[in-house]
Specification:
By secondary structure, this protein is an alpha+beta fold. It has one domain. Helix content is 17%, strand content 29%. It is built from 1 helix and 3 strands. A hairpin with a 7-residue loop joins strand 1 and strand 2. The two termini are 15 Å apart.
């Protein structure tokens, strides 16, 4: 799927905070939820590993969510 195709969906892996519904970590992924770690910045990669380490304590089990291009 090309980013230039308006109206098509892309996906994100979303880790919703358990105690603050307005906050979440979200990372671009494919439709199966695979995140390309090499494509993330160092900060985003660190956030991804942190979010994975606190599933069930601070964040919910991640979900794959389609996100429409604007």
């Amino acid at each position: 799927m090309s980013a230039t195709n308006a109206g098509l969906a892309r996906y994100e892996l979303r880790f919703q905070f358990l105690f603050d519904e307005g906050r979440a970590y979200a990372f671009p992924c494919d439709k199966e939820g695979h995140v390309d770690l090499d494509a993330l910045s160092e900060r985003a990669r660190n956030n991804y590993f942190f979010a994975r380490s606190v599933v069930g304590r601070d964040v919910a089990t991640p979900i794959v969510q389609a996100v429409s291009w604007h």
